[in-house]
Write a structure and sequence with these properties.
The structure is a single chain. With 182 residues, the chain is mainly α. It contains 7 helices and no strands. Helix 4 crosses helix 5 and helix 5 packs antiparallel against helix 6. The longest helix is centred in the first third of the chain and has 34 residues.
Amino acid sequence: MTTLLSRNIGRMSKLVLHPARREAADLLHVARKRWRRAWPYIWFVWVAVLSLRPSWKREFHTKGPLHVPGHALIFAVSAFVACRSAQSVSQRVVRCAAVIGFGGALEMLQSWIFRSRFEWDDVLTDACGVLLALLFVTCADSMRKNRHSLPEQDVELVTEAPEQPPRVGRIEASALAAPDRP
């Protein structure tokens, strides 16, 4: 009996953290939670700053063979960032529409800052990247939900026999008797 009790106390002491360790664990949890909330904002600020820096646009020659895939990739990642905590398809659609609006606003600012024409093809490429990400996230979520649900079995539905109309008149004694057993 004492060995069983001492084993249980030993296990419990491992689960209970020292107050200093518990405080450090709580601080780490809070820091992780704040980072999870902050990094989407950091991502969108980074995209905005990099797209509006004139020196960056000249240095990297943004017009080239990687221009279109770059736009699609950046805005697909932006859609993933925006949709990461969405609970429903309608929330994802609204967030993806906001990301497309963000891309349009960036293009408008670029045309105003750099005195260039508004590039509708970039907005279209951004929208295609966002829509591909939305399609991917929605399909992946649907497959994840279907994987965890139980498969349907081939079950025959049991229906009740239709009700017999009440008999009117005389009932024979043979009808009331139990059926003969062989």
